[in-house]
Here is the input.
Amino acid sequence: MARSVTAHIITQYPPQVRAIAVHSYTSSSRSIYNRSEKLAMTQNKALVLFPQEYFERYEVISRYGYDEYFLSQHEKNLRDTFEGFVFCGEADSTLRVLAVGASDGTSDIQIIDTLNSKYNSVLYVVVEPAESQVQKFQTLVESKREAGLWTNVQFDFHSLTVEEYLRKTKIGKEPAGFDIIHLQHCVYHFADPENTTVELYGRLNAGGMMFIILVTGVREETVLHTVNIIPDSMPSIGSATLRAMLKRRIPDVKIQTQYRKISYKVDECFKENSKEGNMMLDFVVQLLDFRKTAPAEVVGDFMKFFKESCYEVNSQLYFPADDEITTVIKE
Here is the structure.
């Protein structure tokens, strides 16, 4: 099991960054800013409501954070986890997988490759609200089929939010639950992260696995603090928050975690006229055109806090973006 958030902060980052994160951790339950009225203008600017702009900004921030080493390790994490999964169904039955917030399918390739090679029959249900991303996923599947790959996998695409999908497929309408449900960096965008995650757990078959990736450590604590500065930014949930919630709602839940240290190079974010810097900033706060549309006081306060949350290496600023893999097994 992973160490506590605070223990990890104490050992991993420079003192000024640890101080910011620990302060955020201990004070996140009380609002230190009261700007709801000032930020009313940004309520319809939640980045998740603009799929094209969301993925454009994700691609930019990924270029500044995910190096080849991390990507290879991420692929290994996926391969090891899904290769090690033990299917509890009958030998000739179909493995049922639910991929929530799967985007264009790029992050699912290693998962599908692994399951296709291990099982004779896989049903892969994709739930992704952005229709443009679903279309890209479908094109990816077609290209794999043309290459003679993924022959053991049947795909079922749904351009819906996870809440819409769950309402559409209430227990009793679906022939069976799922053996695997995976949620890679998407729980932040659930309308009700706690109840939706618990409901998804309820859709697992006995022996099933829920695979979740969320920010943690310093990044999770800066998210909590950012919400105090910018109430309409990304919901304040990360891996530690999710684990505590699962243990509270499902006392006998079986959880394993794997901590992963990641950083983004963010010098561009502090250049007001940098297109890529502003796109990265939008992704950090999860608001479209944050620097242009938010009140100057809010932008100024956030940028001060943001810089204090960074650390310097070779005269370049890095922002901690650690995440954690959480695997939940339903016994």
